[in-house]
Amino acid sequence: MFSDELLNISWDATTERIKGMRDTDVRRALGKQHLDVSDFMALVSPAAEPYLETMARLSKRYTEERFGRIISMFIPLYITNSCTNSCIYCGFHRTNPMPRTILTQKQIDDECVAIKKLAPFENILLVTGENPAKAGVDYLADAIATAKRHFANVKIEVMPLKAEEYEFLTHSGLNGVICFQETYHRENYKIYHPAGMKSNFEWRVNGFDRMGQAGVHSIGMGALLGLEKEWRTDVTMMAYHLRYLQKHYWRTKYSVNFPRMRPACNEGFQPNCFVTDKELAQVTFAMRIFDHDVDISYSTREPEFIRDHMCTLGVTTMSAESKVNPGGYHTYPQALVQFDVSDSRTAKDINRRLKELGREPVWKDWDTSFDHPACSAR
After folding, report:
1. pLDDT band at 77 (very low <50, low <70, confident <90, very high)
2. What is the pLDDT of residues 310-351, one digit of tens each?
3. Are 114 and 332 in contact (CB under 8 A)?
4. How many whole angstroms separate alpha carbon 42 and alpha carbon 23?
5. Count of alpha carbons within 13 Å of 324, Cβ hemisphere only?
6. Mode of pairing for the β-strands spanning 153-157 and 295-298
7. What is the C-alpha to C-alpha distance for residues 281 and 271, in angstroms, rounded to an integer?
8. How far is CA 222 from its chain centroid?
9. Which of 89, 238, 286, 374 is the most buried (most CB within 10 A)?
10. Could you give the CA distance from residue 350 to residue 348 in angstroms, rounded to a whole number?
11. Which of the four pLDDT bands, split at 50, 70 and 90, describes residue 97?
12. pLDDT over 90 for what percent of the chain?
């Protein structure tokens, strides 16, 4: 399990290594075709800041060689905000006095119909809080099956599950799982997640192993930038994690996310650092140079000018017209949201802008025929 590997990687030593990177380390990394994690450290270090234009050109080149000029489009659907966790930075915090909603299958179906009227989405992400007693695996299986009637590609962002539960959900039509580790700092993780299922660091970080063991087709990972002051260390730990997963579960497709902290509703938590636009660009370029094949995703957390700029330089997946509250598209449009969205443009406006920038929005990248038992048996 990756938690065992992580015991051999010192947070403090990694932080010092990143700070100690020099100009020669950066130039060495930029001159290599195949990078290791040490090279990644150099590219996210302060020493790499003078090389951002060079990194941008390399990132653009590697992205277009591997992905062409396409941007895969998806939309999230929050199906419940019921949660038993006490994450101090999240609007779904269990002590937050907000109305709690668990959408019925009829309401989920209504939401799917409403989404289809926005744009020709075929990639949907079902998102929940963590309350397995009220919205557990059986509920998720039904929700996936409901969404599958409308969308070719269904992913989930839910509480970490057992390997056999992930495998069970694949039979309902599950195509992928996204899970944010939030931070890889084992001790501080407990501070940010004091109670609930999410307080178990090992269970969460090893959830990616269980996804791989279950044969999940696509795994998305991310660290919440701003939660830790040493954000460069967090993304380096994610680079270690990515390499580990690729080695052990090489049939799986991987994506990475770099969500910057946004204000949470009814919460007073302030980020421990504010990652600038320039720093966000740097870590995006560094990841693309480090791994030419990984999918890099930006959500509507980010403002439109950043998303427009980065979609030409390294980003390959974007969400559009996102609602971050259960039933936000049809059933409960005014319900309290999990966090503030920065890019509020319509999907049609984003589609138009991407084409102006020379990108080709792709609304479907998964064929339903691939889910047919006859195809799986070949």
Report:
1. very high
2. 999 999 999 999 998 899 999 987 665 556 788 999 999 999
3. no
4. 9
5. 21
6. unpaired
7. 19
8. 5
9. 286
10. 5
11. confident
12. 85
Residue 271 pLDDT grade (very low, low, confident, very high; cuts 50, 70, 90): confident
Q: What phi, psi does 88 have (nearest 5°)? A: -75, -10
Separation CA 110–CA 11 (nearest Å): 46
Cβ–Cβ < 8 Å for 75, 69 = no
How far is residue 359's CA from residue 68's CA, in Å, rounded to a whole number?
9
Residue 315 CB-half CA count within 13 A:
28
pLDDT at 263: 55
Give mean pLDDT, residues 167-171: 96
Task: Report how far residue 97's alpha carbon sits from residue 93's, in angstroms, rounded to the nearest whole number.
Answer: 9
Measured distance CA(153)–CA(173) in Å, rounded = 8
Q: What is the 3-state secondary structure (H, E, C) of the chain?
A: CHHHHHCCCCHHHHHHHHHCCCHHHHHHHHCCCCCCHHHHHHHHCHHHHHHHHHHHHHHHHHHHHHHCCEEEEEEEEEEECCCCCCCCCCCCCCCCCCCCCECCHHHHHHHHHHHHCCCCCCEEEEEECCCCCCCCHHHHHHHHHHHHCCCCEEEEECCCCCHHHHHHHHCCCEEEEEEEEECCCHHHHHHHCCCCHHHCHHHHHCHHHHHHHCCCCEEEEEECECCCCCHHHHHHHHHHHHHHHHHHCCCCEEEEECCECCCECCCCCCCCCCCCHHHHHHHHHHHHHHCCCCEEEECCCCCHHHHHHHCCCCCCEEECCCCCCCCCCCCCCCCCCCECCCCCCCHHHHHHHHHHCCCEEECCCCCHHHHCHHHHHC
pLDDT exceeding 70 applies to what percent of the chain? Answer: 93
Q: Give the separation between CA 149 and CA 71, rounded to whole angstroms.
A: 24
Statement: residue 24 has pLDDT above 80: yes
Give the dihedral sign, CA 75/337/274/189.
negative
Query: What's the confidence (pLDDT) of residue 99?
Result: 83
